[in-house]
C-alpha cells in the first residue's frame, strides 16, 4: 500500500512540475508575420568570414544598419559542397544533391536540353520556364534519407499557393555550367516559372580565370523584368566569387587573390545597386552564402553570414529561429520556412527548418561586430574540443588503469587518489571555462588546466578538513551548477567545450548529451554519498534527494529548459528506481512496470505541453512529435535508424566510446574482485545503490539517445572514478 502511495505522489508531483513550467517567457520575437509582396535571395557563395575584415564588402556590411544579420549553419544531408548546400536551401531540410544538378536551362524553344528534360520527366516546360535536368536523381537520392526531404519544397509550396518564382544568373566557366541556384527556386518537377540562367547574363573576360564574368547590368535588367511579371520569390546568383574560387588551382596565388578581390568589389557594387531599386516596405532582401571555402572548413570556420532587410527585420538586429533559439545563429534550413512565413504561407511538414525572425536582443557594439566576436569564440572552442577531449580520455583511461593496477597488485601509487579526483573535476572546470577570457586554443588549454587544478585542490582541502567529503562536494557542486545553468538559458553549456557545437549543429539549446550524462552521474553520486556520510540528517536528506530528482526531471525534460527527450526518458526511470532502492523497496516485475509507466506519462506530459504551444515556440521535441503524428509509424522507424547509425558511428570513431569501455571495464573488474563492488556495497549501501542507478542511466542513455555513447560515457565519469576512489581509500 505504501509502495503504491509513493508511486502516486511521484507521478502527481511530476505532472505538477510540468504544469508549473507551462508558462515560459516567449523564446522568439519579431516574427515577420506581415505578408510581403516579394522575397529576393541573392547568392554570394564561397565567401569567408575573413573577407568581411577587408575593404571589399562595404555595401554588404552596411546592410546591418537597415536590417538583421546572423551566422548560418550550412549543414546538408551529405558534405559541405554547393551541390548539396543549394538544394538544402530550397528544401528546408538537409538534402543531398549531385553534380548533375549543375545543369539548368532556359525554356526557349526546341533545344537538346529541353528534349532531354522531357525524356527524363515526361513534362513539357512552358515558355519562359527554367528547368532542372537532375530533378529525377535529386528525388531518388533524397527519398533514401532517413527523414522527410523533398527537393524543390519551397517552389512547390509557392506554386500551390498560386505564386510565381524566378531565378537569375549562374557561375558558369567556359567549359562547365554551374547553375545550382535553380534548385532553390524550382518546384517538385524541377521547374521555375521564369528566369535566365544561360550565357545572356555573362560577359566574356579573357583575362579572368574561367574566361567569363557576370553581367551585373543584365542581372538588374532581368530583376526588373521578373518583378514586373509578379515573381514572389527571386533567386539571384551573383556568380563571380564562385567562378573565381572554382578556377583558383589554375592560377598563381597572386593572380587568384587579385581576381578574388575584384570579384568581391563587383559583387558588392551590384548589391548596393539592387538595394537602391528595392521597396523595403513590401519586399525582403536576403543575402546568403550557402557554402564556405575549403580553407575556412579546414580552420573550422564553417558558419557564414546571412543578411535580411525588409518588414520584420529592424535595423542592426540579430537573426534567430525556432530551430536554434540562439541570438545571431540560424540554420540554412530555416530560410525556406522564413520565406514562406514572410509571404503569408504555412510551412510544409517535410521542412525541418523553422522561420527566421529578428531577435529582441541588440548588442551594444553593433550586430556585425558582435557576430564576428561570437564566431571567433565558436571557432576557438571547436578547434580545441577534439584535442582537449582526446587528451582527457587518454588521461582517464591511464588513471583508471593505474588505479586498477594498484589494487590488483597491492602496489600503492603516490598521488593516484588525487588524480582520480582531478578526473572528476574536469567536467565542472569545462562548464566554468566560458567565464574566463579564452582568446585562443593555447590560452584555453592553460585556463582549463588551472581551473581543474583549483577545483581539485578545493575538493582535497575540504576532504581533509571534514573527512569523506570529496565525493559529496565535487558531485553536488557540479550537479547544482548544471541545473542553475539550465534555468539561466544554458549560458555556460552553449559556450563550453563539453557543450554543443553550433558548427556541428546537432543541438543549439537546452542540455546536450554530454552534460546530461554528467548531471545524472553527479547527482546520483552526490545524493547517495550525502546519505552515506551525513547520517544524522539521513531522513531529511532522503526527502531532499527525492525533490532534487524531481526538479532534475523537470529541468531536463521541460521544452523551455533542457528540452531533451532522451534525457527525460532516462532520468525518470533512473531516479525513480534509485529513490525506491534508497527507500528499501524490493524491485519486482510490477515495480519495473510502474517505473516504465511513470516514464511514459512524464515524457508524454512534456510532449503534450510542447504541442499545445505555438509552432514558432516549440522545441525540437514538439516538432518531432508533430512530424510523427503526421507521418505515422514509418517515421518512428526512421528515428530509430538514425539513432542506431549515430551510435554505431560514435562507437567506432569517438574518443568517448573508449572512455565508456574503460569505465565499464572498471565496473566489471571490481565486480569479480573481493575488494570491489561487493565489499564496497556492504560497507557503503547507499553509494552502492547510486552506482546501480548510474549503470542503469548509462544503459538507457545508450539505447534512447541519438548520441547515447556520449551521455553514457559522461554518466560514468562519476561512477568508475568514484568506485575506484573508494576502493583505493579502503586499501
Summarize the structure.
The protein is α/β, with parallel strands linked by helices and 731 residues long. Strands 1, 2, 5, 7, 10, 11, 12, 13, 14 and 15 form a ten-stranded mixed β-sheet that branches. Strands 3-4-6 form a three-stranded antiparallel β-sheet. Strands 8-9 form a two-stranded antiparallel sheet.
Helix count equals: 27
Oligomer: single chain
Global outline: elongated
Portion of residues in beta strands equals 5-15%
Q: Percentage of helical residues?
A: 55-70%
What low-confidence regions span 5 or more consecutive residues with pLDDT below 50?
A: 1-34
| Distance linking N and C termini | 43 Å
Class inferred from helices and paired strands: alpha/beta
Question: Mean pLDDT, rounded to whole units?
Answer: 88
Amino acid at each position: 500500500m505504501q509502495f503504491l502511495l509513493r508511486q502516486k505522489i511521484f507521478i502527481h508531483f511530476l505532472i505538477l512540475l510540468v504544469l508549473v513550467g507551462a508558462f515560459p517567457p516567449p523564446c522568439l520575437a519579431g516574427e515577420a508575420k506581415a505578408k510581403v509582396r516579394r522575397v529576393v535571395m541573392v547568392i554570394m557563395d564561397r565567401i569567408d568570414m575573413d573577407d568581411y575584415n577587408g575593404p571589399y564588402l562595404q555595401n554588404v556590411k552596411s546592410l546591418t544598419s537597415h536590417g538583421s544579420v546572423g551566422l548560418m549553419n550550412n549543414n546538408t544531408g551529405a558534405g559541405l559542397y554547393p551541390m548539396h548546400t543549394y538544394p538544402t536551401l530550397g528544401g528546408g531540410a538537409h538534402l543531398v544533391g549531385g553534380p548533375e544538378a549543375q545543369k539548368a536551362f532556359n525554356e526557349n524553344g526546341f533545344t537538346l536540353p529541353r528534349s532531354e528534360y522531357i525524356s527524363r520527366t515526361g513534362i513539357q516546360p512552358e515558355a519562359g520556364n527554367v528547368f532542372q535536368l537532375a530533378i529525377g536523381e535529386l528525388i531518388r537520392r533524397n527519398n533514401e534519407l532517413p527523414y522527410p526531404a523533398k527537393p524543390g519544397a519551397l517552389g512547390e509550396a509557392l506554386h500551390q499557393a498560386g505564386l510565381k518564382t524566378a531565378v537569375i544568373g549562374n557561375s558558369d566557366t567556359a567549359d562547365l555550367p554551374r547553375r545550382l541556384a535553380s534548385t532553390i527556386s524550382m518546384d517538385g518537377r524541377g521547374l521555375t516559372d521564369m528566369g535566365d540562367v544561360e550565357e545572356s547574363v555573362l560577359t566574356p573576360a579573357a583575362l579572368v580565370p574561367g574566361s567569363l564574368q557576370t553581367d551585373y547590368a543584365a542581372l538588374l535588367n532581368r530583376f526588373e523584368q521578373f518583378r514586373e511579371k509578379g515573381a514572389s520569390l527571386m533567386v539571384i546568383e551573383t556568380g563571380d566569387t564562385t567562378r573565381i574560387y572554382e578556377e583558383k588551382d589554375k592560377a598563381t596565388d597572386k593572380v587568384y587573390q587579385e581576381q578574388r578581390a575584384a570579384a568581391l568589389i563587383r559583387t558588392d557594387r551590384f548589391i548596393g545597386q539592387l538595394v537602391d531599386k528595392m521597396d523595403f516596405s513590401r519586399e525582403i532582401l536576403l543575402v546568403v552564402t550557402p557554402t564556405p571555402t575549403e580553407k575556412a572548413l579546414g580552420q573550422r570556420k564553417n558558419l557564414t553570414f546571412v543578411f535580411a532587410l525588409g518588414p520584420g527585420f529592424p535595423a542592426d538586429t540579430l537573426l534567430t529561429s525556432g530551430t536554434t533559439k540562439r541570438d545571431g545563429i540560424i540554420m540554412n534550413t530555416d530560410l525556406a520556412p522564413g520565406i514562406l512565413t514572410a509571404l503569408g504561407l504555412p510551412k510544409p511538414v517535410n521542412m525541418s527548418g523553422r522561420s527566421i525572425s529578428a531577435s529582441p536582443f541588440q548588442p551594444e557594439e553593433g550586430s556585425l561586430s558582435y557576430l564576428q566576436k561570437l564566431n571567433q569564440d565558436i571557432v576557438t572552442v571547436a578547434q580545441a574540443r577534439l584535442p582537449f577531449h582526446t587528451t582527457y580520455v587518454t588521461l582517464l583511461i591511464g588513471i583508471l588503469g593505474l588505479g586498477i593496477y594498484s589494487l590488483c597488485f597491492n602496489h600503492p601509487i603516490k598521488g593516484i587518489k588525487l588524480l582520480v579526483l582531478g578526473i572528476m573535476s574536469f567536467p565542472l572546470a569545462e562548464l566554468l571555462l566560458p567565464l574566463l577570457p579564452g582568446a585562443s586554443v593555447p590560452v584555453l588549454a592553460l585556463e582549463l588546466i588551472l581551473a581543474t587544478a583549483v577545483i581539485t585542490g578545493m575538493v582535497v582541502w575540504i576532504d581533509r578538513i571534514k573527512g569523506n567529503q570529496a565525493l559529496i562536494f565535487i558531485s553536488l557542486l557540479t550537479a547544482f551548477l548544471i541545473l542553475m545553468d539550465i534555468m539561466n538559458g544554458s549560458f555556460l553549456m552553449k559556450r563550453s567545450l563539453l557543450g554543443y557545437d553550433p558548427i556541428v549543429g546537432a543541438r543549439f539549446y537546452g542540455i546536450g548529451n554530454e552534460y546530461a550524462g554528467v548531471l545524472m552521474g553527479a547527482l546520483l553520486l552526490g545524493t547517495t554519498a550525502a546519505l552515506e556520510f551525513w547520517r544524522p540528517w539521513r531522513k531529511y536528506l532522503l526527502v531532499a534527494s527525492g525533490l532534487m530528482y524531481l526538479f532534475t526531471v523537470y529541468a531536463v525534460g521541460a521544452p523551455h529548459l533542457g528540452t531533451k527527450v532522451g534525457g527525460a526518458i532516462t532520468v525518470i526511470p533512473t531516479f525513480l528506481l534509485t529513490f525506491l532502492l534508497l527507500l528499501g523497496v524490493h524491485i519486482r516485475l510490477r515495480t519495473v512496470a510502474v517505473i516504465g509507466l511513470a516514464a511514459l506519462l512524464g515524457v508524454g506530459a512534456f510532449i503534450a505541453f510542447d504541442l499545445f504551444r505555438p509552432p514558432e515556440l516549440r522545441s525540437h521535441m514538439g516538432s518531432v512529435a508533430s512530424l510523427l503524428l503526421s507521418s505515422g509509424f514509418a517515421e518512428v522507424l526512421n528515428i530509430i535508424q538514425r539513432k542506431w547509425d549515430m551510435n554505431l558511428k560514435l562507437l567506432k570513431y569517438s574518443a568517448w566510446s573508449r572512455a565508456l569501455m574503460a569505465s565499464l571495464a572498471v565496473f566489471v573488474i571490481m565486480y569479480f574482485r573481493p575488494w570491489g563492488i561487493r565489499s564496497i556495497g556492504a560497507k557503503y549501501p547507499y553509494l552502492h545503490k547510486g552506482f546501480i542507478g548510474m549503470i542503469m542511466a548509462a544503459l538507457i542513455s545508450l539505447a534512447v539517445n541519438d548520441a547515447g555513447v556520449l551521455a553514457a560515457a559522461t554518466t560514468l565519469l562519476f561512477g568508475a572514478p568514484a568506485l575506484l576512489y573508494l576502493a583505493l581509500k579502503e586499501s
